[in-house]
Amino acid sequence: MAASLRLRGAVSGLRYWSRRQRPAAYSLAAVCSRSMASKTPVGFIGLGNMGNPMAKNLMKHGYPLIIYDVFPDACKEFQDAGEQVVSSPADVAEKADRIITMLPTSINAIEAYSGANGILKKVKKGSLLIDSSTIDPAVSKELAKEVEKMGAVFMDAPVSGGVGAARSGNLTFMVGGVEDEFAAAQELLGCMGSNVVYCGAVGTGQAAKICNNMLLAISMIGTAETMNLGIRLGLDPKLLAKILNMSSGRCWSSDTYNPVPGVMDGVPSANNYQGGFGATLMAKDLGLAQDSATSTKSPILLGSQAHQIYRMMCAKGYSKKDFSSVFQFLREEESF
């Protein structure tokens, strides 16, 4: 549908909300009528590594859920907790006028919205549809047009923070869409994240996410290379990480998500790189960045190299491992 489209816009505006500082412009008096529906059921489609804890945080805030996932087993614990499970995205749209989707790829998002049993088959006028998937900005724009034809509202709201932040409710949401609907989206997103940022028109949330993930991939590869070099020079990895994290080389990949086994607890590197954010998804996001860079004629030398590294990882058996397994990949690839 949108394969030939490319991102043309840039971030046109910025509005920021966090639990610590909420702008006066978004006081309760300014919240639109849809958000005042409060504890009415919320649809949630996509219960993977990120969607599962996000949906649970909505439950913790008292929202009844209408659940769907292509893998029925993913719905079982929600059904056991009393939430309603349905058999298609269309059924979700029939029962809820606020829906959040959290899906792996553009193809999955298109199917969930525009497929034979997609949301658009039964969406109600006035519904608010929030897509937190990381997909091509052009696809978000195309979906928004289709949703608008049905009298509903579409917003792209991809996330940053990983599985840990999804569990703790501390995600960052980058939101694109009609600004007048931001408060309604914020009511729900604030249950799952500590930062909700308005970026501009539909597609700008995706643009921000793609840029963030390109930087994340580059910094993770840099951290992995640095740790590998230091270890081979005889440094203790924990000591090296401590030095990096009190020095100018400090970054999220080194101090929060270190890729070296044994340096940190509670991260994928401490669990044979299981869980977390898969190398396949990082390669996908870097591909989106590459496409956007081509369409905007933007040089991304390190981004392109990162894309190739993650593609090689996927071809060599790392596709299901967390993206921090680039450390293990570099350790094993002596030819580099």
Structure description:
The structure is a single chain. The chain has 336 residues and is an alpha/beta fold. The chain has 2 domains: 42-202, NAD(P)-binding Rossmann-like Domain (Rossmann fold); 208-330, N-(1-d-carboxylethyl)-l-norvaline Dehydrogenase, domain 2, CATH 1.10.1040.10. It has 13 helices and 10 strands. The protein has helices spanning 51-60, 76-80, 89-95, 106-114, 137-149, 162-168, 182-189, 204-232, 237-244, 252-255, 279-296, 301-318, 326-332, and strands at residues 15-18, 42-45, 65-68, 84-85, 98-101, 128-131, 153-156, 159-160, 171-176, 193-200. The strands form 2 sheets. Strands 4-3-2-5-6-7 form a 6-stranded parallel sheet, sandwiched between helices. A 4-stranded mixed sheet has the order 1-10-9-8. Strand 9, helix 7 and strand 10 form a beta-alpha-beta unit. Helix 8 (204-232) packs across helix 12. The two termini are 39 Å apart. It is an enzyme of class 1 (oxidoreductase). Residues 42-200 form the 6-phosphogluconate dehydrogenase NADP-binding domain.
Layout: helices, strands, pairs:
Elements: E1 15-18, E2 42-45, H1 51-60, E3 65-68, H2 76-80, E4 84-85, H3 89-95, E5 98-101, H4 106-114, E6 128-131, H5 137-149, E7 153-156, E8 159-160, H6 162-168, E9 171-176, H7 182-189, E10 193-200, H8 204-232, H9 237-244, H10 252-255, H11 279-296, H12 301-318, H13 326-332
Parallel strand pairs: 2-3, 2-5, 3-4, 5-6, 6-7, 9-10
Antiparallel strand pairs: 1-10, 8-9
Summed up, what is this model?
It contains 13 helices and ten strands. The chain has helices at residues 51-60, 76-80, 89-95, 106-114, 137-149, 162-168, 182-189, 204-232, 237-244, 252-255, 279-296, 301-318, 326-332; strands at residues 15-18, 42-45, 65-68, 84-85, 98-101, 128-131, 153-156, 159-160, 171-176, 193-200.
